[in-house]
Specification:
Elements: E1 8-11, E2 14-17, E3 22-25, E4 28-30, H1 34-44, E5 50-52, H2 53-60, H3 68-82, E6 92-95, E7 99-102, E8 107-109, H4 133-136, E9 167-171, E10 175-176, H5 184-199, E11 204-207, H6 209-217, H7 222-229, E12 233-242, E13 245-254, E14 260-269, H8 273-289, H9 294-301, H10 308-323, H11 327-343, H12 348-364, H13 371-388, H14 393-407, H15 410-423, H16 428-440, H17 444-457, H18 462-474, H19 478-491, H20 498-508, H21 512-521, H22 525-538, H23 542-556, H24 561-571, H25 574-587, H26 608-617
Parallel strand pairs: 9-11, 9-12, 10-12
Antiparallel strand pairs: 1-2, 1-8, 2-3, 3-4, 5-7, 6-7, 12-13, 13-14
Length: 621
């Protein structure tokens, strides 16, 4: 067993990663000043206890002479970061004249030592790869996306009753009511497993995590959530885990009336957690659909694994993966998936998730010399997942993504994406990368249709809107691309790469100053550096442009060969751009997947060398 790093402290949906001295929230790392972090660290280590101002002066300021206003400023910064209210505190309570008390429950979430690496640059939200990032981000969404909105077949509309025969249900996140706040991952894992089981019945349409979670966070009542998601029924409940015992409470609510239809509490040993999931699914479907046939019962009883420890590791890996925080978090997720497949070598979902996290590590963090090995390991995991679960759309999509990113094999990827699309027509996490890939290989109509449908099915998912904006920008429909990009930001203000995408769109519209302002707002540093190198040159700031390119190369070296080509093409240095593209081809830079549609490379399109490169990659149609 791996040795343990210093613990991460968990409260609500935040993680205080004490190894790297940072706070991670639902949308990724939360910026805190050094003193504010030290104050938070001291408070979270002492939940429920009054921490006096003298203690804060002594430990957060190392005994330096400071005024009370310094403490007050740090507390204000923390409340802003946590979304806390001083009058009705959920986290930090003021004790007048004396100090502060942390009132939320705190638990520990230990990370394997293999996960503790030097803090790297922040990753791109949704697994959007650094290679080809300015115009190719949406195609990488499969690498780290969440679950799609709908798992079923047939057209959808927004009315709960709909026009078809299927019943629509949303499984809201089950609340973790364990004494240990760190068990939220386990509750989330049971929630996702329930969704998966219910989705196996063709008479159900199941709303999945992204939009379901978003609707619940809005604090709406049952009827309002039903209208928002277009569902007739809601499943809500809680999970309490204590040692080898687990209690799951579940309630079925009619979203049209707001009344409960069914409720039940299950107390079992942890080894029986799969039976609980099956019983809840059967009870819900029986209540909604009436008598179930034998095939339905068998479908609901089927488990992805029968090993509770493997399920626990998988759920922990998914929770870490969904944080989309940084390299250390992704490596912790990889360690969890490694444990899951070690405990159950036939666990297809764990192999698929392992492939996805390896794709993220390769695409965002691996130096050029490590790319072949990391991609090969990811490909092997994806192929294993497909072999174990040939009807899994997610497994085929993961394989398709790795075939492009790791091998630049567009023909093989097209076959895998087509299979994924056939199996997951109503899965937004399939539609998004499928649409991005389709537009890159010249199937514009298919691409736009897929992303239009992703937005229809998953309206509260920022990646759906971002993907649609990407396809529209690839089609050079600049004015139409801006609204979906801005919608993605409205849904997820901290989402990375979106400001960069808006900046490229503004640049193509001839609004260079506006493009520069958007690049300045982009939180992903290498996206910002690439963009500033382009726009500063256009604005006559040649020294600043060169400095931005130098920063980019100093940080990532050959791994950003494709970005160098973008910059040099926009500078008018065609020979330098082709030299960078040749390097990108030699090292297998996945940014080349965007070559056919990348507007930043438009200055090269009339050159015979560009035509030959497209042909060599199989992108010349």
């Amino acid at each position: 067993m791996a040795s343990l790093a210093p613990p991460a402290l968990v409260f609500d949906r935040f993680v205080l990663d004490r190894a790297d001295q940072r706070l991670v929230g639902p949308d990724g790392p939360v910026h805190l000043g050094r003193k504010a972090y030290r104050v938070l660290d001291l408070l979270v280590q002492n939940p429920g206890r009054l921490v006096t101002k003298d203690e804060l002066f002594d430990k957060a300021w190392d005994g330096a002479i400071v005024t009370e206003s310094s403490v007050t400023s740090a507390i204000k910064e923390l409340r802003r970061a946590l979304g806390d209210d001083s009058h009705q505190p959920r986290f930090i309570e003021s004790v007048y004249g004396r100090g502060y008390r942390f009132v939320a429950h705190v638990g520990e979430a230990d990370l394997p030592q293999s996960a503790v690496l030097p803090l790297s640059r922040a990753p791109l939200a949704g697994g959007l790869g650094r290679r080809g990032v300015l115009v190719g981000a949406a195609a990488a969404a499969i690498a780290a996306g969440g679950s799609a909105l709908w798992y079923a077949v047939g057209q959808r509309d927004k009315s709960p009753s709909g026009g078809g025969s299927a019943e629509r249900v949303a499984v809201l996140p089950l609340a973790n009511v364990s004494d240990d706040a760190g068990q939220q991952y386990f509750a989330d894992g049971i929630t996702e497993e329930l969704r998966d089981r219910l989705a196996r019945l063709t008479r159900f349409e199941v709303a999945a995590r992204t939009s379901s979670n978003a609707a619940q966070k809005q604090g709406l009542d049952a009827k309002a959530i039903g209208r928002e998601l277009g569902v007739a029924y809601l499943i809500e409940g809680s999970v309490r885990r204590s040692g080898d015992l687990v209690r799951v409470s579940a309630t079925l609510v009619d979203a049209r009336t707001g009344f409960q239809r069914w409720t039940q509490t299950y107390d079992r040993k942890i080894d029986d957690v799969f039976a609980i999931q099956s019983e809840i699914a059967q009870a819900v479907t029986g209540e909604v659909l009436g008598r179930l046939g034998g095939s339905d019962v068998r479908a609901l009883a089927r488990s992805a694994t029968v090993n509770p420890d493997a399920f626990d590791a998988y759920a922990k890996g998914r929770a870490l993966f969904d944080l989309s925080a940084d390299e250390a978090t992704y490596r912790a997720a990889l360690a969890a998936f490694d444990r899951a497949v070690t405990l159950d070598a036939g666990y297809a979902a764990a192999w698929s998730q392992r492939a996805r996290v390896l794709a993220v590590l390769a695409n965002q963090y691996a130096p050029a010399k490590e790319l072949p090995r990391t991609y090969a390991e990811g490909l092997a995991s994806a192929r294993k997942a497909v072999a174990l679960a040939p009807a899994s759309a997610e497994a085929h999509a993961a394989l398709a993504y790795l075939l492009v990113s790791g091998k630049l094999d567009f023909a093989a990827a097209a076959r895998s994406y087509q299979r994924a699309y056939a199996l997951g027509t109503n899965n937004a996490d399939i539609l998004i990368p499928y649409g991005a890939f389709a537009v890159r290989v010249g199937r514009e109509r298919d691409a736009l249709s897929a992303l239009d449908r992703a937005v229809l099915l998953d309206p509260l998912n920022p990646r759906s809107h971002f993907g649609r904006g990407y396809v529209l920008s690839a089609l050079r429909r600049w004015d139409e691309a801006l609204p979906p990009f801005r919608k993605a930001l409205a849904l997820s203000p901290k989402m990375t790469t979106v400001h960069g995408a808006i900046a490229v769109t503004e640049l193509m519209r001839g609004r260079t100053a506006e493009a520069r302002a958007e690049f300045e707002r982009e939180p992903a540093e290498f996206v910002k550096s690439t963009g500033l190198a382009i726009v500063d040159a256009k604005l006559g700031r040649r020294a600043a442009a060169q400095a931005a390119l130098d920063r980019l190369i100093a940080e990532s070296g050959d791994a950003v060969a494709y970005q160098r080509a973008q910059v040099l093409a926009q500078w008018g240095d065609r020979d330098g751009a082709f030299k960078a593209l040749d390097l990108a081809l030699r090292i297998g830079d996945s940014g080349l997947g965007a070559l056919r549609v990348d507007p930043l490379l438009d200055p090269l399109r009339g050159d015979p060398r560009f035509v030959r490169l497209l042909s060599r990659l199989g992108l010349s149609r």
